[in-house]
Design brief:
Protein name: Acetaldehyde dehydrogenase
Helix content: 40-55%
Strand order of the largest sheet: 10-11-12-9-8-13-14
Number of domains: 2
Distance between the termini: 66 Å
GO molecular function: oxidoreductase activity, acting on the aldehyde or oxo group of donors, NAD or NADP as acceptor
Oligomer: single chain
Number of strands: 15
Keywords: Coiled coil, Oxidoreductase
Amino acid sequence: MIALDKDLQSRQNARDLVREAKKAQAVLAKFSQEQIDAIVKNVAQEAARHAEELAKMACEETGFGNWQDKVLKNTFASLRVYDAIKAMKTVGIIRDDQANRVMEVGVPLGVICALVPSTNPTSTVFYKTLIALKAGNAIIFSPHPNARQCTWKAIEIVKNAAIAAGAPAGAVSAITQLTLDATRELMHSKDVSLILATGGEGMVRAAYASGTPTISGGPGNGPAFIERSADIRQAVSDIITSKTFDNGVICASEQSVIVEDCIYAEVRQELEAQGAYLMNDDEAARVAAMLLRANGTINPEVVGKTAVWLSQRAGFTVPAGTRVLIARQDTVSHNNPYSREKLCPILGLYVEADWQAACRRVMELLTNEGLGHTLVIHTRNQDVIREFCLEKPVHRILINTPAALGGIGATTNIFPALTLGCGAVGGGSSSDNVGPLNLMNIRKVGYGVRSVDELRASGATPAAAPAVAATPAAPRYQTSILDDDRFNRPAHVSAPAAPAGAQPADDRFVSHTTALCNASSNGDITEENVEHIIKQVLARLGK
């Protein structure tokens, strides 16, 4: 037997997984809504039971964040996501518009390739498994190498839970020989219908470049604007709570704070009272030097670390209770790390003359990085909210809430998700908080309700007519398409005779063969009758 090299073995592993997933998905596609829902429920409940175990495992393996907050994320990604999708119709006829005679049918995509980030390795597995299975898809995971053990453990838990509830083997799986070749093999497979990408910018770009349809999250760089009418104490509390949640690894968390000059003194006092440390110029320069690598990407050593650890790493000391490091800034650029995404409890601080100047700074920050992602505003002024909502190039605008938890739908009623689309402006294909409906196609069924003659008549120039008081029109149709008696009438039963002067009955749902046989001298299949039927068919076709 010939031993394959590691890269070839890993590619073969990926191909085998795709073959098994394709078989499993063909079985899932025939399941009823009740069967799918039973699988999803069991997966969610079993995942939640392991929330703490996996949180500790992820924290220990990656060194990112803290396990207490990861427990909340695991619970959110299992039970909260399940609550949001459990009543969702995804199988068969999912919508029947009886008035307009249109139906919608849910169609699974097939096999989904899911990339898992090291920042949220177990919660992402729970979330993506639930939304994929709910839409009737099979899913194959590609774990991040720096979080492989906790990710594999999470996948094993959801896979076993799915099978225990009736899912076919292969519906949930993962690459076991982690190489870039294996991930590329998955992404380029003709039998993979969609890549669900959450991770670094390079991997997301590779997913889009594969030619396989892709839905992704994008880098966040969310500004938080504290407007003069805000409850300042609560605004500061929300920002610090958000930025320190799991030590800042959620991409929706705040990256910069913009404050109106007239309230800056009060805001600064509140920041310091709640555990923020405002760095001097030298300290800020030291921290900036360690935030980015030479290639301009974030230094993984700083991701998910505490403010105290970061200050020590930069060579200065802060009070033991320090929660966030803040650097006063007045410039925005790709080379200024304070104006970019920082996956740790560090914030840039900008002071502006008024809300119009704050608007311009927000645009500058978002254009620098984070287009399409998230913006948070702390204000009581509805006019300010309206102005920001109408103009800002983001798809999540959060009002008076911690951004990290509001953006994913934990402290807001936005759809709960861990893949946050940035839309076309952010280089993505979706602007949604991604859920099951993003992972399925919708087949439209439309019934003919008007004739070509009616269309022509409606295009004619209407003659002037006296004004008549409008009377609400009753819906033309009150029943489902499938309630039409032409679907229910046995083939051998003729349509009812039409009244004198009426249009001929529609016999399109009557078997033409049956009708033609009945038109012959008798129903026997003889050479003479068959020849007679053929002649009648040709006559109907005008031949």
